[in-house]
Amino acid sequence: MMLREFEVDIPLGRITGLRGDGDGPRVLALHGWLDNAASFIPLAAHLPGVELVAPDLPGHGRSAHLAPGAEYTSGVAVNAVLDIADALGWETFSLLGHSMGAGIASLVATSVPDRVRRLVVIEALGGLTETVERTADRWREAIAAARALPGKQLRVFTDLAAPVRARMQANQLSEPAARLLVERGVRPVEGGFVWSSDPRLTLPTPQRLSEAQLARLVAGIECPTTVIYADPPQAYFPEPLRTQRAALLPDGRLHVLAGTHHLHMEDPAAVAARMQAFLRQ
């Protein structure tokens, strides 16, 4: 399936992305943190017939950034996804998410169970948590980072080789996968290119849910759910936590595949094999 450019306007601004023209199940695909819609190009080729829509989430890729003074929060992300679905004219749909996008998709599914038919999450379920003991420290770190951000300058790359190498090293990506993300994730400036993502996305959030709160949200996902994890696990989502999260789902199935965090880009055929029939049920 080939993907083409699309754009829609929602209350926070213009959302860009990639979409296919399949006549099968409607699937909204949500990418990971500092990634973009190109994250799903390799996987789309293995999902024939699926009406796949992959937006650049707010502040990512070629989509609008939030207004000055606004913050990127889970609530903002969930409402943006629902606004995108509304703009597409989709009352019901399935969700596919990778990493941060999987966390957002989880929250959408539990928030509007009447609208989400099926859920596929890759390399995350629910989101990141914080302990009660770290509450004050987290607020101090978040506010200090936010106050320091306005003075920082964006690095200018003379060509795409350096940012491609940076993504390869940071995310264990192959050169082709890294290039897909970089080509959609930079914008031209005098002297070369800069990252197009909103610098505010790099700020720590002052407040996160506790593990007990997030467990309630995961347990509230009513739709059938497929969870796909890579082995070895990421340090921020270790075992046995990630398996325990999956076990909370009322109607869940778990697959663990050998691979890296972006396994949907590096081994798309194996990932698609675990979700193709599931999305069509």
Description:
The strands form two sheets. This protein has an eight-stranded mixed beta sheet with strand order 1-2-4-3-5-6-9-10, with helices on one face. It has helices at residues 41-44, 74-88, 100-111, 135-148, 161-171, 175-185, 211-219, 241-247, 263-266, 268-273, 276-280, and strands at 4-10, 13-19, 26-30, 51-55, 93-98, 116-122, 186-189, 192-195, 225-231, 252-258. The chain is 35% helix and 21% strand. The two termini are 20 Å apart. The mean pLDDT is 97. The chain has a single domain, classed as 3-Layer(aba) Sandwich (Rossmann fold). It contains eleven helices and ten strands. It is globular. The longest helix is centred in the N-terminal third of the chain and has 15 residues, at 74-88. With 281 residues, it is of the alpha/beta class.
Helices, strands, pairings?
Layout: E1 4-10, E2 13-19, E3 26-30, H1 41-44, E4 51-55, H2 74-88, E5 93-98, H3 100-111, E6 116-122, H4 135-148, H5 161-171, H6 175-185, E7 186-189, E8 192-195, H7 211-219, E9 225-231, H8 241-247, E10 252-258, H9 263-266, H10 268-273, H11 276-280
Parallel strand pairs: 3-4, 3-5, 5-6, 6-9, 9-10
Antiparallel strand pairs: 1-2, 2-4, 7-8
Mean pLDDT level: 97
Query: Largest sheet, order of strands side by side?
Result: 1-2-4-3-5-6-9-10
Give the structural class: alpha/beta
Please give the alpha-carbon distance between the first and last residues.
20 Å
Any idea what the shape is?
A: globular
Radius of gyration: 18 Å
**Annotated CATH architecture:** 3-Layer(aba) Sandwich
Q: CATH fold name, please?
A: Rossmann fold
Main sheet specs: 8 strands, mixed
Instruction: Give the oligomeric state.
Output: single chain
**Strand segment count:** 10
N-to-C SSE series? EEEHEHEHEHHHEEHEHEHHH
CATH class group: Alpha Beta
Residue share in β-strands: 15-25%
- The CATH homologous superfamily corresponds to Alpha/Beta hydrolase fold, catalytic domain
Total number of domains? 1
The helix count comes to 11
Pick out the low-confidence regions.
none
Secondary structure: helix percent: 25-40%
